Structure formats: structure tokens, C-alpha cells
Amino acid sequence: MDGQAYRGQSDQLLDVNKSPKELYPIVLRVNELVTRVRNAILNERNFTSNAAHELRNPLAALRTQIEVALASPGIDDDTCDALSKMLTLQIHMERVVSSLLLLARLDAGSEEVGFDDIPLSLHVRKTWKPFFEIASEKDLSIKWDMVESNVSIKNDSVLLGILLSNLFDNAVSHIPKGGDLKISSVASNDGIKIVIANSNPGVKTEEIDTILSRFGRKDPLFDKSSGHSGIGLNICQRIVEDHLGGKMMLDVDNDWFTIILDLPVEVILGNHYHV
Length: 275
Fold this sequence. Notes:
By secondary structure, the chain is an alpha+beta fold. The chain has two domains: 10-108, Signal transduction histidine kinase, dimerisation/phosphotransfer (DHp) domain (Helix Hairpins, Orthogonal Bundle); 116-274, Histidine kinase-like ATPase, C-terminal domain (Heat Shock Protein 90). It is built from eight helices and nine strands. It has helices at residues 3-11, 24-70, 77-108, 120-128, 132-137, 157-174, 208-212, 232-243, and strands at 116-119, 141-145, 151-155, 180-188, 191-199, 247-252, 256-263, 267-269, 272-274. A five-stranded mixed beta sheet has the order 2-4-5-7-6. A hairpin with a 3-residue loop joins strand 6 and strand 7 (256-263). The longest helix is centred in the N-terminal third of the chain and has 47 residues, at 24-70. Residues 1-9, 220-225 and 271-275 have low confidence and may be disordered.
């Protein structure tokens, strides 16, 4: 299911010709309201997309200037520290802009879904590689329990990569030092379940809706949120539910923060489809 099809169920106009005549005035008013709301949402999307596009070049130029300054000979420690903090903020801003652009594409239904044969275990492990270093620095204990290497799925490799990257980034950024991370998957007749569970950094059940919302964070302060804007999990949920036709569930208890991806995909065992 793509984003366009999903939204079409909720913003299409009522057919006046199929309504009883006595309801014409009500149907017309409802259609006017739906049109106004749809136009307002479209204007917001266009503004978000245009603003994000306009910010990309200045942010890239800013990063270049900061990196050049950091590489300058004879730079003192205080200046180096200040520039490093500026670079951290700049990287955070770039991440927000990239997330906003992706959200705009998802909202507009312009993010095309292409289904390829993906070796699941290999794809998940390759997506994990950029996060290995920070996991090592935090002395995290990683446990893998993936399906066999000959299991592939029919899915969009780009969207699945964005999805997993956001979830891995969220996990390693918030797990307490020395914590645990479990990455597993299960294949069945109904598709694939991917489970990412990490030591709970203190999230409570009543906070789940907040952190799944746009810009929702357990702690609203940037420096206490590992530089995260609170868009990542919302993007993940949109990708899973609007574009991949699955479900993303979040569960917390005293010990674990667990995300379950339930993807109703075709499972391929070797050269044979599992249906």
C-alpha cells in the first residue's frame, strides 16, 4: 500500500449525485470542509518541503566552513571545543532537514516503493555496520538471532534500510552504557517479524504515544536527547504502515524497550517462494 492510496480513503469527496436530495446541503458543506482541510495540509507540506530544500545548501556550506576552521593549524583548545559543539549542532540540523524532506515525500505519496529480493539477514547486518563503533564505545552487549542466511523477502531495500537505520540509531543513542541490545527476526507463512529490543533508558508506557508523534521526545531538551529531533520513530511508523503495509508495535517494561516490525511480505527460501 502506498501513501497516496492510504490517504485517499480519508480525504476523498462525497458524491453528491449518490446522496438523497434532502442531504445535498450537508454533503456540499462536508465537501467544502474536506477541501479546505486538504488544501491546508497541502500548503503545510509544500512549505515544509520548500523550507527544507532551501536549508540544505547553507547547512552544507556551514559544515564545510566549520571543518576547515577545525583543520586550521595552531587552533587553541577553547576554539576547537566551541567549533566541535557547533559541528554537532550542524549535523543535528542536517539530520532534521533530511528527515523533513523524507516526511514531505511520504506525505505526498511521491516516495516510490520498488519490490526486490532482499537477503534479510545480510541486509540487516549491513545496515547495522555504521552503528558498530558507537555500540563498542558504549560497551553494549549485542545478541543476534536472525533467520537463516538463505531467507530473502520481497521488499523495498531503500525504505527498509531507512527504517532499520533509524531504529538502530535510536537504540544505540539511548541505551545506557553497558546495556543490552537484541536483534532478531522470525519468518512465517504471514511474513517476517523483526524485533529490536534494548535496555530501557527509562521510557514509561504512558510516554509511548508521545515519542511516536512528530517531534516527540522523552526529554524535549536537545542536549539531553542525544541530538535527536524526535522525527525518526514517526518516520519508521509511516514507512511500515503507509508504504510497506505492515505494523510497528512498541512495548516497554522495566527492563526492555522493544520495537516489533510485522511485515506481511513474501518470504523466499533459497529459490522457492514461501506463501
